[in-house]
Specification:
Blueprint (H helix, E strand, L loop, with lengths): L1 H38 L5 H5 L8 H4 L6 E6 L5 E5 L12 H11 L5 E3 L17 E3 H11 L2 H12 L2 H14 L22 H12 L2 H7 L3 E5 L5 E5 L4 H4 L3 E9 L3 E10 L2 E10 L2 H23 L2
Antiparallel strand pairs: 1-2, 1-9, 3-4, 5-6, 7-8, 8-9
Helix pairs in contact: 1-8, 4-5, 4-6, 5-6, 6-7
Amino acid sequence: MKVSLCFIMMLSFMTACNRATSHEEKSLSAEERRLDNSCTIDTVSVSQALALETIEGWDSLSLLTADAWILVEGSEGLLISEKNADKRMFPASLTKMMTCLLALEKGTMSDTVEITKDVFVTRDARVRPGDSYEMGNLVNEMMMISDNVAAYALAKHVGGDTLAFCNMMNEKAHYLGMDNTHFANPNGMPNDSNYSTARDLLVLSRYCMHDSTFASIVGTPFMDIPLLDKRHLPCHNTNTLLTSYEGCMGVKTGFTRKAGACLSSAATRNGVTLFLVLLKSKDQASRFSESATLLNYGFRVMEAYRSK
């Protein structure tokens, strides 16, 4: 009886271990799939299958003012169009995609975050010293209206200080294979050491959009965000494509004088999802119109590619 009981206990222990191992393997494989889906770009399949210059909209691409872009189909990473995709450039507030990602991964959304004087780095902000938010609400506010001070407050709260948080940003960039990227602050304000490329930012965009909370935030056109003192801050998303472009799901706007007008976009139509990063368009209006031009071209390309 003792032997049988020991055998049963050992069998139960081994089963539990196998279940734990299986769970770990599933978790790991899910992350591996996420990485593969985010980082893999197939540069040849579309160009070999189609004469891209014959697709409607090709001629208009030469008229775009943006210095760089990359347009990719989301599920297989099929490259549709690129220009200077590996040129190091200023990412402006597209930087906040990484800040948001780390806040979601490392932070507790129910924490209280106060806007302290030391993080009030610019008057170009809707938050004010002394304001307090639940962390989740401050993340929403930062991404929707691109609040620079909110980014610093979140960086301090998650990392302990800005330098430590920037180290976290660069570690994550290395993990994602963003080899032409370096972050020097959490919000993308002008800094010669804060740079990236259209290709690296596309990897980041695709990776971030696998997080359902991230995707929900950047896909929300409007939110009335509460402060802890019961006031509310109405926030209209700076990405006007959410309400003007059919199928737009996000992702993030950016603008500084050095960086020009930037936009990371994701849109889906008829079962096709496209990701686009466009850098240094001539002004804040053209980043939207030029992104729409590229996305329209991309959907036509994918329609032709699927019909082959």
